[in-house]
Amino acid sequence: MARGCEFLGTDYAIMGGAMSWISERNLVSAISNAGGFGVIACGAMEPHMLDTEIAETKKRTDKPFGVNLITMHPMLDELIDVCARHEVSHIVLAGGLPPGKAIEKIKGFGAKLVCFAPALALAKKLVRSGVDALVIEGMEAGGHIGPVSTSVLAQEILPELAQELPIFVAGGIGRGTAMLGYLESGAAGVQLGTRFVCATECIAHANFKKAFIRAPARDAIASTQIDPRLPVIPVRALKNKGTEEFNRKQIEVAKLLDAGEIEMGEAQLQIEHFWAGALKRAVIDGDVENGSIMAGQSVGMVKAEEPVADIIATLMQEAATAIEERRAATAA
Ligand SMILES: Cc1cc2nc3c(=O)[nH]c(=O)nc-3n(C[C@H](O)[C@H](O)[C@H](O)COP(=O)(O)O)c2cc1C
């Protein structure tokens, strides 16, 4: 983990993946205080809200943490300015290829830039454009997902690029043994989201946490695309009435498109607003029937509410035990 730790400035190369509504001051500072790397999810926040969130996180930890910004946010420029004022050390850009201007601006104030790479060709492009590290996230993950599994992305991208820059693997990691496997394949570290949702320090509603503790892996399903014209990014969440609601929303938006009442850009925006609202309903209000319970397939390995420090200690212990067992077997 040494390379990842050096890049992040942490004891462990474990990033707490930004989760909208969930990765706020409490969870982020708890992850950083436990030796991992917390990342604030900016999501749809406006600049003044992000400003407060960063300030409040700083009050709770003096350890490094990052900020995740969505590239299609209409106020991306102003959000970067907020991060610059706070001298945020690491920015994670999510949601499509980042505009060159944003890359320049982030690197201009001295932050390290981390981007998501959904395929080898795009990973190479990102390296050329000067990003400092990559996250490769497979379709096992919770939230918005790409089409390829973590294991395949890791096999495609790590051998080609792991020498050039630190790469963090995300999606479906629930145990230290899986973490170890990716580290041994060349990853500098890992990023976990689902595993941190039931942390004691996480502000998610008790109903949201209960749903996680009960759910097996097979309940965390990817949304279906109802209309091929609507380029909807699939979202992995626990199946409930909210899942059906999303299908209805897609039909409604497709009809508006047919009638020429909205353009494609507006259609996509409506879909993204749907998700943001539905996730808030479940995470904050605790409506786990109608809201969206975004969760990755590793949800089946979330068994109890426990402090972040225990979650990280368990992951590290599982990895250490695997190494010890192997050494013992070789020595025997
Ligand atoms: C509830 C939820 C919300 C998420 N929101 C975001 C987000 O706002 N931005 C982002 O880049 N990734 C988001 N993610 C993805 C996580 O940052 C992380 O990469 C992912 O959870 C890792 O896979 P895992 O869930 O299998 O551990 C979200 C994931 C979950 C479960």
UniProtKB/TrEMBL annotation:
Chain segments annotated as coiled-coil in the UniProt record: none
Protein name stated in the entry: Nitronate monooxygenase
InterPro entries: Aldolase_TIM, NMO
UniProt entry tagged with the keyword NAD: no
Species annotation: Parasphingopyxis marina
Positions of transmembrane segments: none
Molecular function terms, GO-annotated: nitronate monooxygenase activity
UniProt KW keywords: Flavoprotein, FMN, Monooxygenase, Oxidoreductase
